[in-house]
Amino acid sequence: KAGLMGMAMPRRLGGLNFPITPYIMAADIVSRADTGFENLWGLQDCAETIYEFASEEQKQKYIPRVCAGETMSMDLTEPDAGSDLQSVMLKATEQPDGTWLLNGVKRFITNGDSDENKMGIKGSPTCELVYKNAKAELCGSRRMGLIKYVMALMNGARLGIAAQSVGVSEIAYREALAYAKDRKQFGKAIIEFPAVFEMLATMKAKLDASRSLLYETSRYVDLYKAYDDIAKERALTPEEKKESKLYSKLADACTPLAKGLSSEYCNQNAYDCIQIHGGSGFMKDYACERVYRDARITSIYEGTTQLQVVAAIRHVTTGTVNLLIDSYREQLAAGIKPALETAKANLEQMTEKYNAAIASVLEAKDTAYVDFMARRLVEMAGNIIMSYLLLLDAQRNDSFIRSAQVYNKMAQAVVNTHSDFIANFTPDQIEFYKA
């Protein structure tokens, strides 16, 4: 009724013609109100795949229905194929008349019009779907589905879950802050105790850092998609092609970082929200109990955190992350507020340790060793990027100074810990960890 379906679809197809960034902002806001409902409302981003790859006839047939309020379902996961989409067993068989029939089983399908019993996001129905000669249409070209189309679909979905994670982090922080101000112990509000105000400051820093990376990622997505739209009307110039390729690469690098780190922070903030509530947080009388249950899925679906590490590590080892870091350094080169000078100096040291850690891991020329250290390198990269983004936010607006300083100290501890671990580890020691 609010007319907020098909936000990023063009007006000619019934959409609102927004860029991705305002849609992602809206997803953040919807999520903090009701995480399960955001799953249903957010499925409109599946229409992006139809818009990018379907025929004009299919666009005219399906996208206006989404924009009018009909919902969609993204059916990827199977009983024996979760993150490993190359192992899917559902078969699409072409018929003599050019139509297609589907046979197989899909599992954990959001909006599948049935309801499994699950821990959280209870307002979002999840079910198993069985296809028996189900009629289907081919979208795009044959043999491109798992190579290009699903990857584009997953990137969009992961950005959506990053937004959902930020929304959950926001409501977790708000609930914790309100309770800490109201709850009194030993004659004063618990927010006055260092153990509590440190937790709240850290929650806020994680929230602000997550949102900064989320919007940075959506901005790169908007830029490369704008060039894709232009290319449908005319040939891109060599300079435009170069920029389009760069923005696409930056979006590919930032998306798994945003999804992976924001979902982990979302879970940590939900945990700390419960902790600040104490025994009350364990009761269903308070919203934080639902927030805690809703948060848990964010680091699992649309690719686990471990899979986000797999997606991000190549951008760490091939220098894409350094392109981002160098661009942030340039933006801060003209000067920085006195309150942020120490944080900037810390970041320079963190970046040196990060680059030394990458060099050390790659020097071993051992793929298994790179895989083992990937999480640490990706976390270092994400912490440095988010710390730089918060410095830039604080340069523009004083309200971010506290979060920039708090997150900087947190990032410094993470980078130092991972750097020391890598410096004192050899590839043969991986054996210690094997079952």
Helices, strands, pairings?
Layout: H1 20-33, H2 35-41, H3 47-53, H4 56-67, E1 91-94, E2 100-110, E3 126-136, H5 145-182, E4 184-185, E5 188-189, H6 194-233, H7 238-277, H8 287-295, H9 305-317, H10 320-332, H11 341-363, H12 367-396, H13 401-423
Antiparallel strand pairs: 1-2, 2-3, 4-5
Summarize the structure in words:
With 435 residues, the protein is mainly alpha-helical. The protein has helices at 20-33, 35-41, 47-53, 56-67, 145-182, 194-233, 238-277, 287-295, 305-317, 320-332, 341-363, 367-396, 401-423, and strands at residues 91-94, 100-110, 126-136, 184-185, 188-189. The protein is built from 13 helices and 5 strands. The strands form 2 sheets. The chain has a 3-stranded antiparallel sheet with strand order 1-2-3, with no helix packed on it. A two-stranded antiparallel ribbon has the order 4-5. A hairpin with a 2-residue loop joins β4 and β5 (188-189).
Approximate strand percentage: 5-15%
User: How far is the first residue's CA from the last residue's CA?
Assistant: 55 Å
Overall mean pLDDT: 95
Largest sheet: 3 strands, antiparallel
How would you name the oligomeric state of the polypeptide chains in this document? single chain
Rg over CA atoms, rounded to whole Å, is 23 Å
- Total number of β-strand segments? 5
Structural class from helices and strands? mainly alpha
Taken in chain order, the helices and strands follow as HHHHEEEHEEHHHHHHHH
* Poorly predicted runs: none
Strand order of the largest sheet: 1-2-3
Shape: globular
Helix content range: 55-70%
In DSSP terms (H or I, runs of 4 or more residues), the helix count works out at 13
